[in-house]
Amino acid sequence: MSAAILLSFGVIFVAELGDKSQLMAMTFALRHRWWVVLGGITFATTVVHLVSVGVGHFLGASLPTTAISLLAGLAFVIFGLWTLRGDSLSDDEQQRAQKVTGSVFLAVASAFFLAELGDKTMLATVTLAADHDWVGVWIGSTVGMVAADALAIVVGALLGRHLPEVLVRIGAAVLFFAFGAWLVLEALFPDTPAGTISAGAVVGVSAAIAGTRWLTRRTRTGVPAERIDTAHRS
Fold first, then answer.
1. Nearest-angstrom CA–CA distance, 180 and 182
2. pLDDT tens column, 5-31
3. Number of H helices, E strands in the chain
């Protein structure tokens, strides 16, 4: 079992690096508490990989992926619209913050569940479970994916602390739209580089966010003081 755990951990961890699931984790962490995001990812990953090892061990075939990818793409478009709308709490609603946290957990878990069904990490888990101990593959693949996504959560949480709320909301919405387009294009046109196109959009938004952060810091530290000094001299 230990060999299956180590093998599946390494395979899935490497497969997740730069994958859309990692980018999704970073996006969710921009706006929500990191432990809620990590909990939703862990729950969804545990369930998806249990299904994967079951398919690989007992059936030896994968689930149909086209309809699932289309459904996941639509879900991410909805998440993007929800993010653009924004959320604000009144004094009374502050007392119900626990319910909001619960809804975020469900949103993250459902998003990752839909996105991972038919993804390359699921197919890799199915393949590993067909030839190795399924319990070991389940444990190793789950831990490997959670570990890779945890790295992205750290990045998203750190960025979210230093960026304006409006910028975070718009950036997250654009990323969700890109994920939705990624999944839909992969389902409808499997031979086209949909991932490359959507990844380019993600990189562009990330660069814009980083540039805005740099300009904000520069403005706060230097530009206003210089302008004020010039005004006093004149």
1. 5
2. 998 998 888 777 767 787 788 888 877
3. 11, 0
- Determine the structural domain holding residue 34 and report its residue range: 2-233
Q: How far apart are CA 112 and CA 206, in angstroms?
A: 21
For the whole model, what pTM was predicted?
0.58
Closest Cα to residue 180, out of 76, 109, 59? 76
How many domains does the structure of the chain reveal? Answer: 1
CA distances from 172 to 144, 182, 197 (A): 25, 15, 17
Helical ranges in 32-164 per DSSP H? 34-54, 66-85, 91-94, 97-116, 120-131, 134-161
Residue 151, number of CB atoms within 10 A of its CB: 15
Q: Which residues contact 151 (CB under 8 A, 6 or more apart)?
A: 22
Q: Is the dihedral of CA 178, 172, 35, 93 positive or negative?
A: negative
